[in-house]
Q: What sequence folds into this?
């Protein structure tokens, strides 16, 4: 099916370090991007979003960067904590396709205490 | 305020049977989407409903169908179940059909096992 690709399927970091999760997308018509966090046995939880007319957006301990030239998205988590351990998905919405989201395959983040 | 509620949370069905899953969106939300999540294919879009009308449909066979009621609650049905339909089925809701500026929230999902 359709999918947004991810560079790294797993990422292991030390508690307190910064984490960077990457995502590539392929559709130039995508104008909205979202990062979700999914813990085991739960549904995806919204983290942060960004519109295509922005390059960067910051939230609490998280920053999303968008590079439209190379169709690349990244999620930066500052001072990673054990509670950040989860699978992270990027998702894109293509202009004109309503609420349909195309998800990447996901990156599993493991935080070592 | 209550989140997206999906029922049942877990169910086991036999090949050839059919199943109906239910989703209650966040109060006031009019857009409901369904996704299938499997280890091999990840999260894949099934369909989206807005004000009782199907707005988008993913690349799934006709055995997968859905509907939305006037109170925005939604159901999806899978007929003639196959082993490959075993998955986590996720429902998501948002205030309006366009996600731009309208956060999309997910439920905890319904785990379907086909034996």
A:
């Amino acid at each position: 099916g359709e999918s947004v690709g991810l560079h790294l399927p797993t990422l292991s970091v030390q508690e307190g370090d910064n984490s960077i999760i990457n995502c590539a997308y392929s559709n130039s018509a995508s104008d909205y991007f979202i990062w979700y966090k999914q813990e085991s046995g739960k549904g995806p939880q919204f983290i942060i979003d960004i519109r295509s007319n922005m390059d960067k957006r910051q939230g609490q301990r998280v920053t999303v960067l968008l590079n439209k030239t190379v169709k690349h998205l990244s999620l930066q988590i500052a001072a990673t904590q054990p509670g950040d351990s989860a699978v992270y998905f990027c998702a894109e919405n293509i202009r004109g396709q309503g609420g349909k989201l195309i998800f990447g395959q996901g990156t599993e983040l493991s935080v070592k205490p | 305020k209550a989140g997206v509620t999906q029922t049942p949370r877990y169910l086991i069905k036999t090949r050839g049977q059919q199943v109906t899953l239910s989703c209650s969106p966040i109060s006031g939300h009019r857009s409901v989407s369904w996704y299938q999540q499997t280890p091999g294919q990840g999260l894949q879009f099934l369909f989206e409903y807005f004000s009782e009308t199907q707005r988008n449909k993913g690349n799934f066979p006709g055995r997968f169908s859905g509907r939305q009621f006037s109170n925005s609650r939604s159901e999806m049905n899978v007929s003639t179940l196959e082993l490959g339909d075993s998955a986590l089925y996720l429902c998501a809701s948002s205030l309006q059909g366009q996600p731009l500026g309208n956060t999309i929230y997910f439920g905890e999902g319904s785990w379907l096992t086909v034996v």
Remarks:
- Chain A has a mean pLDDT of 90.
- Chain A has no helices and ten strands.
